[in-house]
TrEMBL record:
Residue span(s) of domain 2Fe-2S ferredoxin-type: 1-76
PROSITE patterns from the UniProt entry: 2FE2S_FER_1 (PS00197), 2FE2S_FER_2 (PS51085)
Pfam family name, one: Fer2
Enzymatic class: oxidoreductase
Keyword Cytoplasm found: no
EC number: 1.3.99.16
UniProt protein name: Isoquinoline 1-oxidoreductase alpha subunit
PANTHER family tied to this protein: BLR6218 PROTEIN (PTHR44379:SF2), OXIDOREDUCTASE WITH IRON-SULFUR SUBUNIT (PTHR44379)
GO MF annotation terms: 2 iron, 2 sulfur cluster binding; isoquinoline 1-oxidoreductase activity; metal ion binding
Signal peptide as annotated in the record: none
Keywords linked to the UniProt accession: 2Fe-2S, Iron, Iron-sulfur, Metal-binding, Oxidoreductase
Keyword Iron assigned: yes
Amino acid sequence: MTRFTVNDQPVEYRLDPQTPLLWALRDASNLTGTKYGCGTGRCGACTVDIDGRAARSCQVSIAQVEGAVVTTIEGLSHEREHPVQRAFLAVQVGQCGFCIPGFVMAAAALLRRDPNAGEEMIRATLTNLCRCGIYPRIVEAVRRAGRLQRGEDVIPAGARPGIDPAEAAGSVPALVAPAKLSDR
């Protein structure tokens, strides 16, 4: 049996000790925010926090985390109030969203170590892959999250990006019915 803490809860897995942490989290604990992307540790979709450091959970066995503290995207914060989550929402980073949990976890670990991380450090540290190509927005969001952590920026509580349906309806040009052949 392998024992460690996941999202502030002690867990005991009765799985083969060589089971990748990713599968223990997803299959045994139903924490599906940690995504399977490539299985080789290259894409970063499976990034979690292990004892304060970002790690690719597909490359770590549960035996390797015996006694450790693991945090997944579900345990980072409740109601998405972590500065990185708030900044990602405010900057509207997500496109398809598949890679976002891994990026959020990697960014949170980076900003814990260096809340003043600049663009060069962010790009060098966040080596996760995004098929949608949202890298400029990710960099912008991580920099904003750093400012939030340092108290240099504010995102109003509960602010969620989006368009008010009433505003959206007014901004779309009215469709004009095509002219009938008899009107020509």
